[in-house]
């Protein structure tokens, strides 16, 4: 649908009015970027660490460990940040630890941050799993619930109490999950003293990945002037060859401020500019943001420079923040997913943030390797199963044109008590945190509010209707889905979503060993759902475990041959249905990943097409051939000439 420019501008202004309605959160969460007015000081590296092994895990709070250097209150060990703590030591108690762990880092901050009161100093944690309490020099500056999203606190006043600039950051993190957290979990005490020692407990989780814990993403200081750009929202559109960037800037710390907004292209040319806190930038001869393998120049990003000037009785402030902006549209019909009004077929993967030693810790070599593998594979997309991934990963997606289905941490909502108001309010809050963080990424094309909840339970209907509606109100520009595995669950969620996301494991969890049933069962399932709801379908998970290096032919389960043949049977049906209403296929999983120990897992889940060390199994080559073929069929270009597939 191509509206005239004027109508599109009005639509954008209406959107901004809607976006602010009924928010639970106050303030923005812009990614910290250096500029002429902002400094960033990363605190990655070695921190000191202690797990609170006291029976009730409360010794640290009772003895106020945050008041003095951690090494004065007991033994400490080195701990890298960012990283999960679980696999760093040789101690099984640390690997499986549940409860509070304490991190500490001492440093000296630049004198001018202390002396210059017009500088605002913010401490930001990219993510820490799950509950965090933060102190600076013994003063509690913030706390946060939730393991996958950033939080921050203004700490200038605390730092200024010590003119030497010395600074001790203490972060206590607790990985205990309850029926009301996202994801939910439950602690069970085993009270049979003939079988378990005193105080023995286990944490039950209802999701299939290791509950890695610790400080998973960078901790850093950043500065802004006292009057600063607090948040920016952009919504993009285009009409013929004119791009439209509707923007809204929120300012804090000044009653009045002048704002200049400039859009700059890759060559450094200013292509549009405007003044004021909201407006629409018009870009002639626009370079749209296109997904990888659909255009010769995918992932085109403009830079939107926001320049604020303000003054109070004492001084003047200038703040500069530059946001990467990709101009693109997303729409859904009953049979298609449209990016820039062109049908887009997701041929991609599901991932996890997971690797040897680091667990869920952000790791640049791993991130870059994974993007190289995605491109090698010819994958154009992934789902952030089953929680929001690091902002740094989404920035890579923006730049490389990898399309993202952005999933909340609502995985494994299986207990009826997790559908009450406490959980619902928390879920709404988390959706706000997620949309606030990721709303400006062009790569993010859809929100997934949950994975495989027990939505067949009676209270789930109101629960999901509310979460989906809230998400749509927060962001009317992107479709919303939830991912389901059982037919019952799907039937409950499907009326509310824009796209039906189906997980199934035919010939694995059902009819194990019988790959011959896949095509019949998949066809029946698709036709039923599409006929009933007239919505496009994504195969959001399918796959089979393969222990690398295990071979049997004719294939049997857990071999590389079996994984291949499962995929090939699914692909037959995908090829029939993608001509109709199937809009994507995402393999489970990109790479093997760690899980809790159990009788169905051989040192983790082995459904990866790559090993955990990112080496290809036989299935990776099947998928690579397929994805490059799909890219050539569905891409807008003669891809063979532009993208020589490394087959
Ligand atoms: C699923 C889940 C995913 C599991 C996968 C499996 O349906 O969404 O988290 O890892 O199945 O391998 O069982």
From TrEMBL:
Keyword check for Signal: yes
GO cellular component: extracellular space; lysosome
Major subcellular site: other
Catalytically driven reaction(s): a beta-D-glucuronoside + H2O = D-glucuronate + an alcohol
SUPFAM superfamilies, A to Z: (Trans)glycosidases (SSF51445), beta-Galactosidase/glucuronidase domain (SSF49303), Galactose-binding domain-like (SSF49785)
PROSITE patterns: GLYCOSYL_HYDROL_F2_1, GLYCOSYL_HYDROL_F2_2
A Gene Ontology BP annotation from the UniProt entry: glucuronoside catabolic process
Regulation acting on activity, per entry: Inhibited by L-aspartic acid.
Compartments, record wording: Lysosome
Start and end residues of each Glycosyl hydrolases family 2 sugar binding domain: 41-225
Pfam families (UniProt xref): Glyco_hydro_2, Glyco_hydro_2_C, Glyco_hydro_2_N
Entry GO MF terms: beta-glucuronidase activity; carbohydrate binding
Glycoside hydrolase family 2 immunoglobulin-like beta-sandwich domain: residues covered: 227-328
Every Glycoside hydrolase family 2 catalytic domain range: 330-631
EC number, UniProt record: 3.2.1.31
Keyword tags: Glycoprotein, Glycosidase, Hydrolase, Lysosome, Signal
Quaternary structure and partners: Homotetramer.
NCBIfam families: PRK10150.1
PANTHER family linked to this entry: BETA-GLUCURONIDASE
Role description: Plays an important role in the degradation of dermatan and keratan sulfates.
Family: Belongs to the glycosyl hydrolase 2 family.
The protein, known as: Beta-glucuronidase
Organism lineage: Eukaryota, Metazoa, Chordata, Craniata, Vertebrata
